[in-house]
Design a protein that fits this description.
There is one protein chain. This protein is an alpha/beta fold and 432 residues long. The chain has two domains: 168 residues, Beta Barrel (Lyase, Ornithine Decarboxylase, Chain A, domain 1); 229 residues, Alpha-Beta Barrel (TIM Barrel). It has 13 helices and 19 strands. Strands 1, 12, 13, 14, 15, 16, 17, 18 and 19 form a nine-stranded mixed β-sheet that branches. The longest helix is centred in the middle third of the chain and has 20 residues. The protein is elongated, with a radius of gyration of 23 Å. The protein binds pyridoxal-5'-phosphate. The site of pyridoxal-5'-phosphate has 16 residues, from helix 10. Keywords: Cytoplasm, Decarboxylase, Lyase, Polyamine biosynthesis, Pyridoxal phosphate. Its main location: cytoplasm.
């Protein structure tokens, strides 16, 4: 039976919130998994694709992030944003932990429902929806959905008049990595009109939603958004709606979580009465640090500069910006390359225990496709001379990576994931 949201171990009983990559135990597990998988590959004899890039996912990290959320944002029930990484084991763990889910399409809704999650735990958080998907949501009892314009209200009236609607409002997302408000969100000078139209159409508006932008960096964005949400709650009450839920969206990052959570909690306390249920739609926060990727060096070009008398190297990996490093383009990330295996030496553990050798050579790191844009890192240095057959790894590869990978140039968009768990709680739930 799934654990209820309240049923977890107390959060302040010895858990270390790592911010990043867990405890020594977690690092050991991840290192062993990387090593075990890489040792299985003999580049001189392996079949095509056996040396493909692969992930190691630490479900214990997802579990710790959940406890950290509960500790800092106890009033906000997380609805994991499936789009960020629809990994089936991550979804299963979160379903067991009792979170809700933010789905953006029919496929995401279907994936979550197939796990046996009750439709009331899903919010279809997409203000501009496909008509057939709305029919699908109606048929399957997924009632909660967002809107931000009049056309969507007419669509809802026609297809799903019983829907529980959240009015998504505009936010100031100027300090975020991925701005969403240029595409979605009703401005405060349009909310009254929208609410009046919803009333006229006899639709059921139950709450307000917002998103401060993915990868948000200014906690004050939450304060302003909460003040605006309160304004709309008051407008709605005047028009005769009994709104009962506030959706504070996503935008949380591991590095700044406590600071954001403090501002958000204070703002909720000040502006949002206790009877209002509060939900959130975190994506990146839950998965970013849980996934590490290992990539094989498939080719190397030596670049000798006769004038300067220097030698540098271009390394070509079997994954790139058209694959799991799509996060460089779409999510404005800068993944950091590190050497996993050089010749016979595994360096993951060595680095972890303070290995510190001066840089020897300069590299640029490229993906496998024919396109010049396929560059993972324009410049970096390693202490080793890396060659074909060696392996690099990149941490923090869980968010907006494999979900937006393509098959450009015939490369696979589906990479193996080796699952480990550095938390007994997650291991028990997942049978790991
Ligand atoms: N909710 C909505 C509606 C989104 O569009 C997104 C991301 O684009 C998210 C939640 C997840 O955001 P994040 O990964 O920043 O938490």
């Amino acid at each position: 039976t799934p654990l209820s949201f309240k049923n977890l171990a107390p959060v302040d009983s010895g858990f270390v919130f790592p911010g990043n990559h867990g405890s020594h135990n977690a690092q050991q597990l991840i290192g062993d998994a990387l090593k075990g998988r890489v040792e299985n590959v003999d580049q001189d004899t392996c079949g095509a694709g056996e040396e493909d890039a692969f992930f190691v996912a630490d479900l214990g990290e997802v579990y710790r992030q959940h406890l950290r959320w509960k500790k800092n944002l106890g009033r906000v029930k997380p609805h994991y944003a499936v789009k960020c990484n629809p990994d089936p084991q991550v979804l299963r763990l979160l379903a067991e932990l009792g979170t809700g889910f933010d789905c953006a399409s029919k496929t995401e809704i279907e994936q979550v429902l197939k796990m046996g999650v009750d439709p009331s735990r899903i919010i279809y958080a997409q203000p501009c929806k496909t008509k057939s998907y709305v029919r699908y949501a109606a048929q399957h009892g997924v009632k909660q959905m967002t809107f931000d314009n009049a056309d969507e209200l007419y669509k809802t009236k026609q297809l799903f008049p019983d829907a529980e609607l959240f009015l998504r409002i505009l936010t100031d997302d100027s300090a975020s990595l991925c701005r969403l408000s240029q595409k979605f969100g009703a401005s405060l000078d349009s909310t009254n009109e929208l609410l009046e139209l919803a009333k006229k159409l006899e639709l059921n508006v139950v709450g307000v939603a917002f998103h401060v932008g993915s990868g948000a960096s200014d906690p004050k964005a939450f304060l302003k958004a909460i003040q605006d949400a309160r304004f709309v709650f008051d407008q709605a009450a005047t028009i005769g709606f009994n709104m009962h839920t506030l959706d504070v969206g996503g935008g949380f990052c591991g590095d700044t979580f406590e600071e954001m959570a403090a501002v958000l909690s204070d703002a909720l306390e000040l502006y949002i009465p206790q009877y209002v249920r509060v939900i959130g739609e975190p994506g990146r926060y839950y998965v970013s640090s849980a996934f590490t990727i290992a990539c094989h060096v498939i080719a190397r070009r030596t670049v000798a500069d006769a004038t300067l008398g220097t030698t540098s190297y271009m390394l070509y990996l079997n994954d790139g910006v058209y694959g799991n490093f799509s996060s460089i383009i779409f999510d404005h990330q800068h993944p950091v390359p590190q050497v996993l295996k050089c010749g016979d030496r595994f360096l993951y553990d060595a680095r972890r225990s303070g290995y510190d050798t001066p840089s020897m050579a300069e590299y640029s790191i490229w993906g496998p496709t024919c396109d010049g844009i396929d560059c993972i890192a324009a410049t970096c240095t390693f202490a080793e001379i890396v060659d074909v057959g060696d392996w690099l790894y990149f941490e923090d590869m869980g968010a907006y990576t494999k979900c937006s990978a393509t098959r450009f140039n015939g490369f696979t968009d589906s990479h193996e994931v080796v699952y480990v768990s550095s938390e007994p709680g997650a291991s028990a739930l997942m049978g790991l």
